[in-house]
């Protein structure tokens, strides 16, 4: 610390702190879009990162394959056990598919809330300090990625696109603790309407996702599956999120919280899919929905 | 030769977010957060051997990239890397020729960086952990990991710095 407390340096430090406070204050809020210089920096670093990341995944895949070979016997036993259920499941699926086809044709060919296209992407980096949970992917606005799109792996939902630039984007994982990071989710039950709530935050002690604000009239049980509801935003319906492991009534007793074991592995991400919802369909469905409501209102009015 | 030093820092910066995350992925089983600060350790060594002026510039540049590429809030890393990079500038012969003293400075710098980041993230509301938890799950692993990296890096980098100095001197004489 040579001459640290001399006047000139102290003034510089003060100026530094003031600039820090201003910068942090400006960038803290949830912004819709990162600024152009930021985008350029991210894109140029992203190119180098992809160059680094591809051979790393190659080596990692070889290592994983090697470990898999060691476990192959155990896995074989387990799969044999599962195969017994397969035949039954298959006949059931055939039946359901037929039923579904006939019902959709009745519905005049309208596509559902869950139709979407996917954009495959490679994970090029992960936030190393882990105060915030974000990853970078090598697809950007040039490839059709937009802010708030859902990002999934084969196993389930992992997060949403937070910032986009031309060739890369930043994805906020579900495990990120930021307050604005929430997803509308539903718990499907065999009878009745699905229970709807919000995935809000990550329970650090148990390493589980928390589903909040579920009406306490709905009966939740461990083992039920949770998926996206498709209500609001760019998330289509029925993307798997996870499985309930614990249910608790919240502090006011009006709603309940469920703890969810995510079905996707948030720690071994290399290939992900960005989901582009078919927007025309959403509008179509909304119009249809509004029309139905109007008709209902009219019929109610005529009753009086 | 002149561009080798920034290239080193850039290389370690890229490694932190890519290779390290692929080969040592975090998992739910372990609570410890092993956060690599390899590029920062390199900046501290630059500050010790090349003077605190270099330290502040390299720190600011690296911090800006760290902020923009990996996080959403800009300023936190830019400020703390530059500040700690400047404070670590003990460029005396007596320090430079003793690797153990250099290592001690690196360890103290990493610890104060982590604490500074923790303080700022607490103020901005991004981090919501108690100091005890922070010390056990982040501070300690970070000091161990980056201290170990420092041990590997100090001697080869010292040779490189001595070579740079020789070159500078020759150029002055010519």
TrEMBL record, chain A:
InterPro entries documented for this protein: Cell/Rod_1, Cell/Rod_MreC_2, MreC, MreC_beta-barrel_core
Any coiled-coil regions, as ranges: 79-106
Domain Rod shape-determining protein MreC beta-barrel core: 123-276
KW Coiled coil (keyword) present: yes
Transmembrane regions listed in the UniProt entry: none
Keywords noted in UniProt: Cell shape, Coiled coil
Recorded superkingdom: Bacteria
Function: Involved in formation and maintenance of cell shape.
UniProt family annotation: Belongs to the MreC family.
Protein name stated in the entry: Cell shape-determining protein MreC
Protein species of origin: Geomicrobium sediminis
From TrEMBL, chain B:
Subcellular localization(s) per the UniProt record: Cell membrane
Chief place where the protein resides: membrane
Membrane-spanning parts: 68-88, 100-119, 139-157
Membrane topology: Multi-pass membrane protein
Keywords: Cell membrane, Cell shape, Membrane, Transmembrane, Transmembrane helix
InterPro entries recorded: Cell_shape_determining_MreD
Family: Belongs to the MreD family.
NCBIfam families, per database record: shape_MreD
Name of the molecule in the record: Rod shape-determining protein MreD
Organism the protein comes from: Geomicrobium sediminis
